[in-house]
Amino acid sequence: MASFKQIDTGHMFRIKERLSMFILKKIISPLFMPMTMFTILLTIGVVMLWFNLKQKAAKMIITISCFLFILLSSGVLSSWPLERLENTYHPLEVKKVGAGNIKWIVVLAGRDDESVVRLVEGVRIYRCLSVAKLVVSGGKVYASDSEPSSEKMAKIAVELGVKPSDIVIENMSRDTKDEARILRLMIGQKPFILVTSAYHMPRSMELFIAQGMHPEPAPTDYRSRKEENHIYLEWFYPGANKILDAEIVTHEILGIVSAKIMGQF
To answer: Which residue of 75, 223, 251, 262 lies most exposed, with the fewest beta carbons within 10 A?
Structure first.
């Protein structure tokens, strides 16, 4: 069985004191997600119709709900902001990075599909920088999770050829803010490569820089596609992936606004 190095987080910061804030964020923030708002509005409108409560208002609410769904599924509300988020930083050119100064490649966990894409990019960079350690970061978001995301990524990394001795696991964080605080105590102000999804990179960079760290962005997992002089038929049809894009954009914007309000960067 592979043996990984784990970051000792016993005395790093008081996670329990922030648990209530984390739970509160997980309860409140979903209420502002596009699909949640659409569902709430539609439900209210249907209930009002069935119980003959203010028919005109009910029809207006249902109409707004349908219009919102059309905008969500067509990508009108998400395409431009998603593109802006993803183009904040350019893909990393490993040859231009001072290889001798880089000792750490940090891969942030996301959803399972995102984590795998991020990890593959991290492993690619690791193979180019033979002296660097691969840090996989992400703990259990919910108590019901079978194991921390970082531990899943560590196992996959070994399958992809990374030496277990070159893998460091951070498995206590619940969000990006926690990851920045924990990893600062290990990496300090040394330059390192930060790997995450392109849409998530702007917020991640700000959070790590706010900790006095010096990340080199390596965005991956691009969702937007912009090619001049090309028109794709799929642009004119609704799709579930566009709804997901809207959810992602809303989540990131809320995260950025929340971080600024709370003085996290």
So the answer is: 262
